[in-house]
Every structure is written in C-alpha cells, then in structure tokens.
Automatic annotation (TrEMBL):
Organism: Psychroserpens luteus
Keyword set includes Transferase: yes
Pfam families referenced in this protein's UniProt entry, alphabetically: Acetyltransf_3
Protein name: GNAT family N-acetyltransferase
GO MF term list: acyltransferase activity
Matching InterPro entries: Acyl_CoA_acyltransferase (IPR016181), GNAT_dom (IPR000182)
Amino acid sequence: MITLKGDTIYLRALEPEDLDFIHKIENNQDIWEISNTITPYSKFLIKQYLEQAHKDIFEVKQLRLVICDFDDVAIGMIDLFDFDFKNRRAGVGILINDSVNRQKGYGKEALQLLTSYCKLDLDLHQLYCNISEDNEHSLKLFKNQGFEIIGLKKDWNYINGSYKNEYLLQSILNVH
C-alpha cells in the first residue's frame, strides 16, 4: 500500500512473526507508564491477539501497525485506538522501541503517514492523543505535527507513588 510508505520507513500490518517483538515491547516495564500497563503479557495471549489482528478497524475499533525501516527491521509501532466511525475520530499512540532509533525522525514520519491515511482513506475528521506532561519528546512531536493541547487532566495517572498530569491533544484533519 503506497499510502503507508515514506522516505525512510513504512507502516505494515501485524504478522505472526511479530510475536517476539510485541512480547518484548508489552513486557518492557520502562514503557508501561505510557501504555497504562501494570501486568506482563504472555506469549500465548499475544499470539491470540495476532491471530485476530486481521479483523477490520470498523469491527475491533483499533488498528496497530508496525513501523519498519527499509531493511525490513521493526523499529516501533503506531496505533489507532477508540476508533469512532460515527464521530469520525480516533486516538493515536506511537512508540519507537529502541532508544538508539529515537530522535531520528522515524516517529515524525510514521505520524505523518498515519495522519494522511486517516484523512484520505478512513475519512476521519480528527485524531487525538494523551501525553504525560513530562514527556517532552512526545509533546514536541505531536505539536510539531499540528496537534494542539486542548486540556490538562490533573492527577490523571498514578505512577511510582505519585500522580502525574496528562495533556489531551487534538488535530482536526478535515474541516467541513
């Protein structure tokens, strides 16, 4: 699908071969804070998830894509969640897995590709995301791609014994 191919990366559907990659991501406690995860996932559960990954976004209300470089190496994931067809909106989340691949523009390009796909192919009106107020890199990424902070959720997430605020950001794609 040419829509999901950029200059340095492309986005692809989940494959059964992604089991170990997803298992590593989902069980990395360093990123549980951004995914609101509190328990590990077994390979069995992830395998079951992958077996259902072919289902249509209109049925399961989410779409998870793997971010790959042109050597076909999986470097991250980008998700649409809470897909709301009636109101033509969805949440978006992104993760570049290995810190050596961060700050190289992969997240920016993946977000641009997904945003274009949402606008042109899914005919969405808006995307939104939730970002911890101390996640400066993600805030910069989304703000630089046209997302605006529209609210602050105070004491929203309980992390390591204290509460953190979380911003709600929104991007209007199709103005009618």
